[in-house]
Design a protein that fits this description.
globular, alpha+beta, four-stranded antiparallel beta sheet, ATP-binding protein, about 120 residues, Heat Shock Protein 90, kinase
Length: about 120
């Protein structure tokens, strides 16, 4: 996806939904879509240099990685206040709903990843 092209978020969600359609329960696919949307949107808004999404399927889990090409610094947790609308809740959702998540620094940029267990990703 290109420079802050938020229209690409829907495309990436659809691709993940299609991939997980026969591999997981609908609820697990919905969680994966939501978290992917949050992480990709963060990458596009905060780095303004595009992002690359990778989905790795295992026998009992799926791992989603979103790589940006700006800063290798980990995203800072943000506690939104009531007046922020929907702003600032992405990483809170990832921390709450993912079975595992983290940030891996790269030579250029970083990868924010999450894993969801209980997805029969190789079906």
């Amino acid at each position: 996806m290109g420079h802050a092209d938020l229209s690409g978020v829907g495309e990436v969600r659809r691709a993940l939904r299609d991939f997980l359609r026969c591999r997981s329960e609908p609820e697990a696919a919905e969680v994966a879509e939501l978290l992917l949307s949050e992480v990709v949107t963060n990458a596009l808004i905060h780095t303004r240099h595009g992002a690359v999404v990778t989905v790795t399927a295992g026998p009992e889990k799926v791992r989603v990685e979103v790589r940006d090409f700006m800063s290798g610094a980990a995203p800072k947790p943000y506690v939104p206040n009531a007046d922020d609308g929907t702003h600032g809740r992405g990483l809170i959702l990832v921390r709450s709903l993912a079975d595992a998540w983290g940030v891996t620094a790269q030579m250029l940029g970083k990868v924010v990843w999450f894993e969801l267990n209980g997805v029969n990703a190789t079906a």
